[in-house]
């Protein structure tokens, strides 16, 4: 680490055509280099594309309080955008265009902070590498916002569960079943999730006192020591009356229900998107569960959980404008083309996908 700032000799800026991209897109931009004073030792201009996850949470209290942290650079590409002939950088202005072909397997940008931290971010970084031990690199960075393309086919989902109902710890009360159907599986925040359910309680000797319908977000964090922390948020919910013992919901009694994709505790704040990363995983599902009269806690109740995907709302584009220096007459070089190579990262994500193929198992 040098003791003199590289910015004494000039500045470097990196700018992409836009800030928001989808995985699989081509990112185009320029590196702008403006050297105002001789004396900087270095001739390599480097471009880095960086994807990084962070997690942080605490467990215990007092002397047993422990902090868990996860840091994972899951995507990194560094290339030399240009090499000057002379190690003593000349005064002048230069533009280095670039094109980066993003991998289609990259997860989207994510940020959540409230007692715990879960983030997944992307940056593009430009630097002129200093060869002097007493002078720091000249560098600049820009945040990229990445979204995952829709990989699923928009379709309705349906699931059925049945259970043997037991009360008083050992008294069998028969069987009861529930079937739930959702209109589609992909949503934007604030949309309405339309669903219906059918309960067959004709072989059960207990009334269904109520039926809970809950929109749940399950956030799973992982640390570098492989510790895991799981949070489940009940975002929105409804309660309905269920059928009595020996009965089932008749066709004429069937209803359609709606749950808005909002957090009732903080409606103005949009829901975070679904994401599957190495350290950060966020999934959503609709949970529908009947509750029976008396004490039936000794047996599992028929409970249906249907996963849904929540997409991110695109942010407003804003990239800080560049202020052109005086006497700006840059030399423009040929663009460099970068093809992302994320085979290792893709394998890691595939492993996570296999582990999370049943997101309701824990």
From TrEMBL:
Example GO biological process: protein transport
Record-linked SUPFAM superfamilies: E set domains (SSF81296)
GO (cellular component) term, any one: cytoplasm
InterPro entries: Arrestin-like_C, Arrestin-like_N, Arrestin_C-like, Arrestin_domain-protein, Ig_E-set
Identification of the protein by name: Arrestin-like N-terminal domain-containing protein
Transmembrane segments annotated in the record for this chain: none
Segments forming domain Arrestin C-terminal-like: 173-315
Domain Arrestin-like N-terminal stretches: 14-145
A Pfam match: Arrestin_C
Native source organism of the sequence: Paramecium tetraurelia
